[in-house]
Amino acid sequence: MADRIEVIVERWSNPDKSIDYRWSIWRAGTRVQMGGPHPSAEASERDAVEFCRKRFERAPDRIERL
């Protein structure tokens, strides 16, 4: 699918030992947006899906948590 939208949620460990979750959106193999930080993977995912619905008028085809 050439117009595939994918969300990647990443867990970031900070020098102070805190954890943040950030997302990136990929469309047709190109990163188009990044967001965060968020306190949880769930909050990060919700924000990314909301971004997709507003920007692309649809939900992502795939969500992956790293």
Structure description:
This protein has one helix spanning 41-56; strands spanning 5-13, 19-27, 30-38, 62-65. It has 66 residues and is of the alpha+beta class. It has one domain. The chain has a four-stranded mixed β-sheet, with helices on one face. A hairpin with a 2-residue loop joins strand 2 (19-27) and strand 3. The mean pLDDT is 95.
Keywords:
4 strands; alpha+beta; single chain; 24% helix; 66 residues
Layout of helices and strands:
Blueprint: E1 5-13, E2 19-27, E3 30-38, H1 41-56, E4 62-65
Task: Evaluate the radius of gyration.
Answer: 12 Å
Number of helices: 1
Helix content: 10-25%
What would the principal axes of the Cα set say about the shape? elongated
Give the number of domains.
1
Terminal CA distance reads: 23 Å
- For the biggest β-sheet, the strand order reads 3-2-1-4
Low-confidence residue ranges? none
Mean pLDDT: 95
Order of helices and strands: EEEHE
Strand content: over 45%
Structural class: alpha+beta
**Main sheet makeup:** 4 strands, mixed
